[in-house]
Amino acid sequence: MATCTLLVENTQSYNASLKSTFGFSALVEEGKLSVLFDCGPDGTFLENARKLNKELASLSAVVLSHGHFDHANGFPALLDAQQIPCVYLGKEFFTERYSLEDGIYSYLGSSFDEKLLHQKQVKATEVDQRVSLSPSLSLVSDFMTRYPFETPPSRFVKGTVGAVQADDFSDEVALVVEHKDEVSLLVGCSHPGILSMVRTVGERFGKPVTKVCGGAHLSKVEQMRLEVSIIELERLGVKDLYLCHCSGSKITELGNTTSQCRFHSIGTGDTVLL
């Protein structure tokens, strides 16, 4: 059984010695395998890992789910602390990404480029469709939005200032833990849409996604979308959702009163089984 420990997230759980900040970083452990999934916005996750007695010196893999600052900017701090032979990225990770509103470009991308990887001798492995890390752990990407109402907000764009296009986040990377008759899904922000990601993974693996952990990007959506999402998650076979970061509290409150799915809010320092 794999475990997932939140090294940093927006909110604090019971361990008051840990620091929380806007971002996401999780450590997945299964036997001797350890996978760092996202690095948060800075080096906070490193300090929290030490306080949680989590050893990062012998990581099996490092994964960056997408190129936004709150998931990727802690990566240079990791490289300063230790040698990392390989990092798994989506195919457009280094594309510039912005929030564009009223003609104002706000940079959302990572703080480093491929030069840093060359300097630190880190191999970048591109995740396309599916990459196996072990017999039971895989990385998946190349997501397509399957539900029109899950199309990413128009403010999210990619490219260079003055020459941008809508960002569909199809290269976002997720982690899958495969069991005999079901799979668990770890997501960073679910920009392609949490329903689209759950449905895609279920189809690719031929098994239902029964457990979801991470950010669902539902904090600012309208009530009707929340209601439809809850119904569809249940139809797709999801039983438990451990939500944080960009998920918002409304989906958990509403889901636990209207659905057979069990919705849980988790914070920095919490560990769940995947």
Briefly summarize what is shown:
The protein is α/β, with parallel strands linked by helices. It has helices at 44-51, 69-72, 75-81, 114-119, 194-205, 223-236, 250-258, and strands spanning 3-8, 25-30, 33-37, 61-63, 86-90, 97-101, 104-107, 123-127, 130-132, 137-140, 156-160, 163-166, 174-178, 183-187, 209-215, 240-244, 262-265, 271-273.
Description of the molecule:
The chain is globular and about 50 Å long. It has helices at about 45-50, 70, 75-80, 115-120, 195-205, 225-235, 250-260, and strands spanning about 5-10, 25-30, 35, 60-65, 85-90, 95-100, 105, 125, 130, 135-140, 155-160, 165, 175-180, 185, 210-215, 240-245, 260-265, 270-274. It is built from 7 helices and 18 strands. Helix 5 runs parallel beside helix 6.
